[in-house]
Amino acid sequence: MARIAVDMDEVIADFNAKFIPALNARFNKQLTLAHLHGTKAEQVFPELAQKIKDMIGEADFFADLPVMQDSQEVLAQMANQHEIFITTAAMEFPLSFHAKFNWLQQYFPFIDPMNIVFCGTKTIIHADYLIDDNIRHFSRFQGEGILFTAPHNIALEGFRRVNNWQEIAEIFL
Amino acid sequence: MARIAVDMDEVIADFNAKFIPALNARFNKQLTLAHLHGTKAEQVFPELAQKIKDMIGEADFFADLPVMQDSQEVLAQMANQHEIFITTAAMEFPLSFHAKFNWLQQYFPFIDPMNIVFCGTKTIIHADYLIDDNIRHFSRFQGEGILFTAPHNIALEGFRRVNNWQEIAEIFL
């Protein structure tokens, strides 16, 4: 049994499936997933950086994110064999607390709320593995970081990488 | 430099200073701090256990807790020498997220929000020290637990104990 910390956005929550259409609608843009390869929307539209951050920071932004494909089924099975924690950098968007908590209750009811962590820096996380799309969380993590592929990290090397939840199942089930 | 995780309630927030008068007013009781030696209010009034939990769980309960004596000054100095995280078991009371976050911003503005952790079980915390009033958080903590004296833990032995923030200053400053 391993202790596995799992990020939310772009790992179990399909952030971009909501974010890209929301950005396009609000700011009259034609952003696609391909535009985000190796970058972030705030870098594609630097003049909108603060407004984009404000949009994500709205209280209900995270309330209705689609679930990442296969994440429910695989994580439910993993929870039978491993100790699963959800570790999300919620402190960047303090208004998102309730939306994130309720979203987890709705879509991942098998995760005990006692195993949910809202944090900032993830250096504070004590786990064997951290599945995350942001390599910045791996630098001082004492376990093994597993990089979940997202457009912004697609060109990064030097980390164990998984492209989807079936690949996570192959490692942990 | 050590990484020190610090609990909120009954460590930097004087929970009982609000809780006891609030309980007495709402339920027409005469509870005092002395009644809570070695126990919790839910055990003193088992017939009120759920109602007490509901009261604490109200969205604004944690909004106006008094600050624990000397905690601001000592922690501000400690933050110059150590890496300080605030780690609070907020998942028990999900409606408290905003009140707790805002309270920290108000009274401990020198704590970077990136160093705030809302969690359930604290086994997930990776730190050298954990200053907490609940020994249950020490059992699987791999650093050293330091028990901050509170009425409910007053009779417990087997842990390094501090009775106030001056004693914490003596250890870490």
Quickly list its features:
homodimer; 173 residues; alpha/beta; six-stranded parallel beta sheet; 6 helices; globular
Report on the structure:
Two copies of one chain form a homodimer. By secondary structure, chain A is an alpha/beta fold. Helices cover 32% and strands 14% of the residues of chain A. Chain A has six helices and six strands, in the order E-H-H-H-H-E-H-E-E-E-E-H. Chain A has helices at residues 15-27, 41-44, 49-56, 71-81, 97-107, 165-172; strands at residues 3-6, 83-88, 116-118, 129-132, 144-148, 160-162. A six-stranded parallel beta sheet of chain A has the order 3-2-1-4-5-6. In chain A, helix 5 links the parallel strand 2 (83-88) and strand 3 (116-118). Chains A and B meet through helix 5 and strand 3 of A and helix 5 and strand 3 of B.
Biggest interface, which chains?
A: A-B, 28 and 28 residues
Q: Overall mean pLDDT score of chain A?
A: 97
The poorly predicted ranges of chain A are: none
Total beta-strand segments of chain A = 6
In short:
Chain A is an alpha/beta fold and 173 residues long. The first copy, chain A, is built from 6 helices and 6 strands; from the N terminus they run βααααβαββββα.
Layout of strands and helices, then pairs:
The structure is a homodimer of 173-residue chains.
Chain A: E1 3-6, H1 15-27, H2 41-44, H3 49-56, H4 71-81, E2 83-88, H5 97-107, E3 116-118, E4 129-132, E5 144-148, E6 160-162, H6 165-172
Parallel strand pairs in A: 1-2, 1-4, 2-3, 4-5, 5-6
Helix pairs in contact in A: 4-6
